[in-house]
Amino acid sequence: MTMETSPGHGAHHRTAEVLLAGLDVVRLSPRDSGVLEMVVVRPAPGEREVLDVATVVPDKGIHGDTWDQRGSSRTPDGGPNPEAMVTVMNSRAVDLVAGSRDRWPLAGDQLYVDLDLSTENLPTGTRLTIGDAELEVTAAPHTGCAQFTERFGVEALRLTATPDGRFLRLRGVNTRVVRGGDIRVGDTVVVSRPGA
Prior knowledge:
By secondary structure, the protein is α+β, with helices and mostly antiparallel strands. It has helices spanning 16-27, 91-98, 146-152, 154-161, 163-168, and strands at 2-4, 33-41, 47-51, 53-57, 61-62, 86-90, 111-114, 127-130, 133-137, 173-179, 181-184, 188-192. It has a single domain (2-192), classed as M1 Pyruvate Kinase, Domain 3 (Beta Barrel).
């Protein structure tokens, strides 16, 4: 399924009260293994394609995504940020801000997982094995942007920036590819923490 990310979704913005009430559901996310709920690639600016199966490629991210063509203000040469190859968002958190599964891809992340992404549960260096691929959680912060506000509302962005929102990583987490391979919706996401 391919979708456009055009504006005009204001009617779907959740109130601060609804968002705060939903945090308890996010906190119940599994800690040691979860499930890959959705895979999304960005084939062009403003476009999203939802996949059942995807190939993760070292130094490229996810096949069909344009990460390797996107510049970053966080790299010395302005090129793609290797610490943010694949962004991962908690499926309960995206459902909370989006309101429905068909709006998840608007968040702009590639992988949506039912897994506790908190800073306590997934410290920098944690490995996530999904299907044949392995990703490593990086220290690169993943924060909201103007598009996130436009699609989900200012209250959703504010929630991601609160102490609870930052601790739970409601906006998601950045990863780099350690090992490439195929991943499929429904795959188990296995957590391996540094030093474990």
